Amino acid sequence: MIMVFAAGVAACRASPEVSVEGLDEPPRDFVLGVTVVSPNVSDPDRARRPARYIVEADGVLRASVGPGSSAETFPPRTRRLTPRQQDQLWRAVRETGLLAPDHPARVGNPSVVPPNPRRPGAIVYVAAGGDRRYWLVALDEDTPDAAGVRLLIDRLASLAWVPE
Question: Do the beta carbons of residue 50 and residue 41 sit within 8 Å?
Answer without folding.
Answer: yes
